[in-house]
Fold this protein.
Amino acid sequence: MLATVVKHDRRYAQYLLDKWFWRSWLLFAIVTGFSMDYLTPLEHRQSSFKEFMHEWVLDQFLRSLDEFGLQRPWYWDIFLEGLDNYHHMVYASAYSYRASVWFNFVVPGPRERAWLREKYPSSWPEYDPIWQRITERWRAADPGNDFAVHGTAIVSFCDLCQLVLSNGTPRANAANILDHGGRRYIFCSRPCRWIFEQEPERYAAHRDVVKRVLAGEAPANLVALVQRYFGLDYDTWGKDAFGGDYPWLERRPA
Amino acid sequence: MIPLYGFLEGDTIGLVVLADADDTVAVLAGKLQAAARLRAAIDGPITVLYEGKPIDLESTVSEIRMQPLGRFDVRRGPTA
């Protein structure tokens, strides 16, 4: 199908490629990055998500671009930086708001963090202190008391991809604001903003959770939001898979 | 109340902070730090940026003319 579009309108084909590669990348990084770098037990990991992307996705993708005579997406450097960061940004964020999703999370322990440091030498030093803080919080909390180690503030979402504003790095979050048609929009990244600007009429009316909360259409309280708006309850919302009771976590005596 | 998007250096996500018009920028920064404390904290002096520009910690939200859903950043180190 792409060959047909390229044949008739190469510019439009490039636009579709740029748009959908980015949108696919965000979801793929979350689903696969979480699984490979956090949720798979260490002894079963064969490669990091970044290594997997380079070996199984990028080489073939770049060959396909050459085959079709298309260019790399204009945001290629942003994407490459994201290989070292995006799924780590979202995982730490999602862990601390795990009750808002429907699956469980784990804290990377000392062995997992050593592995991540080896696999992501340029970026992991920014994430390690975050997990150290979460570990300290669990150490001071009772096992199973998930909400003692959970965020309560309202998180923010991208007006294009509807995912959390977790692009960029811990040092420099990539979110950016656009005023359009008398309304203010925020995007997690320059590519999401660019996609919006190509077809604003397609996306302008969408409202993220924050705007629905501010409009009084959804509750601001996190538990009420999760229960009444997301349709989750204690049995179904995400928790720490071990209730914070990790063998490596030397809990302080009460 | 003025809803603002806050970004703390060292954190992984933007948070919505509800500011009072009379809040000083220092108080606003404190609200963000409290909301992000589970994941990140800054010990020592901070710099606050609004729409990318440094702002005075003693000024109030209304004096800075912060607009709803504007972006502010709290970063390490004193304002240059």
Observations:
- Chain A has a mean pLDDT of 94.
- Residues 10-39 of chain A form the longest helix (30 residues).
- Residues 155-219 of chain A form one domain.
